[in-house]
Design goal:
disordered N terminus; single chain; about 220 residues
Length: about 220
């Protein structure tokens, strides 16, 4: 739905700097602004100038959100990734989820319960599952994943899936989490923090099982 008067529809394709039509959450609305995609689309719609990039657009209906569509739809088509590097954005969000459910920097109880950020955890699980499960069929069309750090190259589809899974498990199963829980100031807080962390992992496991990345009762941390 166009609320800008531009004639454009919502665009959630993997990079916020290209389109004002990627509607972001409150924390990221300062990034909204007319972008290269908007100018290109308006030039095509109003002046008939052929677009130079046919892969800069997707909308709600193009997102992979269930076990069937996640296999064939690009994970770069996602609401509120708020960055030009969506994969790193989801890594950052997972780090933040661990931060608030474990509070590893303090000896005190966690800041938030896993249940409080259940939706956030589900979004994170969906994002990682999307990259892993769709790599075989969609990675050739990705525009914001390759050429960064130690990531596999375009065309290395099996390696991409393995990289995504390893990146995720290295985060959620880090030994530093257990160390942080052991360092809490009392046994009661240790137990409460462990329970909260386990609840967060359980939410992620259930979502990944639902989407087909994990088998039934399969655990993330072996």
């Amino acid at each position: 739905v166009d609320t800008t008067g531009s004639g454009l529809t919502m665009n959630v394709k993997g990079t916020v700097s290209r389109s004002v039509m990627e509607y972001l959450g409150r924390a990221f609305r300062y990034k909204d602004g007319i972008g290269a995609y908007d100018r290109m689309a308006i030039a095509y719609g109003y002046m008939g100038v052929a677009p130079k990039h046919a892969d800069w657009f997707c909308t709600d209906e193009d997102q992979g959100l269930d076990a069937r569509t996640i296999l064939v739809r690009s994970p770069e088509c996602s609401k509120s990734d708020a960055t030009n590097d969506p994969f790193t954005y989801w890594q950052t969000r997972l780090d933040r989820a661990i931060e608030v459910t474990v509070s590893p920097r303090t000896a005190h109880a966690p800041m938030l319960s896993a249940n409080y950020i259940k939706t956030e955890l589900g979004d994170i699980a969906t994002a990682y599952a999307g990259y892993a499960l769709s790599a075989e069929k969609t990675s050739d069309s990705w525009i914001a994943f390759f050429g960064r750090g130690d990531r596999p190259e375009r065309g290395q589809k099996a390696e991409i899936k393995a990289y995504v899974i390893k990146t995720f498990t290295d985060q959620i199963c880090s030994p530093k989490i257990a160390d942080a829980i052991s360092a809490k100031e009392s046994v009661d807080i240790q137990e409460a923090t462990k329970k909260n962390y386990d609840a967060a992992v359980d939410v992620i496991e259930k979502k990944m099982t639902e989407l087909g990345l994990l088998k039934d009762k399969e655990k993330i941390c072996k």
